[in-house]
Amino acid sequence: MHDANPAGGPTLHPDTLAIIAGRPPHLPDAPMNVPVHLTSTYVANGDLRYGRYGNPNWAAFEDALGALEGGRCVAFASGMAAITAVLDLVEPGATVVAPRHSYTGTVGLLEELAAKRRIQAVFVDISDTDAVTDAAAGAAMLWIESPTNPALEVADIAAIAAAAHEHGALVAVDNTFATPVLQRPLEHGADVVVHSATKYISGHSDVLMGAAVAASDDLAAAFVGHRSMYGAIPAPLETFLALRGLRTLPVRVERAQSNAQELVRRLTGHRALEEVRYPGFGAIISIVVRGGAEPAEALAERTKLWVHATSLGGVESTLERRRRWPAEQSTIPEGLVRLSVGLEHVDDLHRDLTSVLDALDPA
Ligand SMILES: *Cc1c(COP(=O)(O)O)cnc(C)c1O
Q: Which of these, 54, 272, 309, 352, is most buried using a 10 Å CB contact count?
């Protein structure tokens, strides 16, 4: 790959890294992007060997996301594949502390591993730093998601990491919601960052992919070993698309966040809403519609610009009542609708939402 900073000059800004990292060397006739390498195997005696062990598109994507997070990135087939690889670091029977309101797939996986006695899972309110640090004693891993999906609680990553390391526990942070543009957990002491690259990293709702970014070479080697053995590898075309999306991550996040902040200002106090939850940064808002499930479903069904769909982090705005999923925690309000704010004009997004909200009968 091209080394943009061979002499170790001043640290480059994330906006620049997102554009320049993971490019082929600047040589005559070199392509601007690493072409899609559709091959299952390679001619012998090189480093790549076989398609489950390596692919130039992975390397380009990993260079770029690793540069943004400040660690060594390993790409996976999905966010859940990356999460599985990270949880596999702990010894059989070890304790993993995790947020009760994390992504439903993460909670489900932890519960399944606990049911099989592979691990012991302890669920906490991740915004209650004292409760989390108390739980760190005897734990092998602290799992953080911040902000949480969809409760939008925020964790004190630095305080939790310090307490965890006193007890020799690893700290993993699901950084899907904040992205490295807004939060770099490795700088706050985390050992691993995971992403559902399906969301903001790729950013166009056309890819499923994941990544684990390690603070150390040993952890990165463990993830590569896991990926090679278990086979949860990303496809070359998906990896190309994810890197193409990542090029614009800083500008997308900036625009989506400013839309979200403006929507929070305009929606707060609306008579159809019980609550507008927003952690102050990022582009996810959780609104709680007065009257519970029925009016919340009506909102999700009736908007014209906002698409009723799960997932988040695309250029287009989507919304979803989270409790429509039986797996969602019962502590999430029935009327909570998660808004993933996209890059459309904020006036159009606001008008579309309020045209439905204004017509709801506040129960
Ligand atoms: C979507 C999501 C995941 C799972 O990622 P997939 O790419 O769907 O496997 C994990 N964590 C968070 C916070 C998510 O939003």
A: 272
Q: Output the ligand 1 site: residues, CB below 6 A.
A: 78-80, 103, 105-106, 145, 149, 174, 176-177, 196, 198-199, 208, 210
The most distant pair of C-alpha atoms in the chain lies apart, rounded to whole Å, by 71
**Rounded CA separation 234/239 (Å):** 6
How much distance in Å is there from the Cα of 83 to the middle of ligand 1?
Answer: 9
Q: Does domain 250-360 have CATH number 3.40.50.1950?
A: no
The single-letter code of the amino acid at 318 is T
| Residues 74, 67 contacting (CB under 8 angstroms) | no
Question: Domain locations in the chain?
Answer: 14-247, 250-360
pLDDT in tens, 168-210: 999 999 999 999 999 999 999 999 999 999 999 999 999 999 9
End-to-end CA distance of the chain: 59
73 with 217: CB under 8 angstroms? no
CATH number belonging to domain 14-247: 3.40.640.10
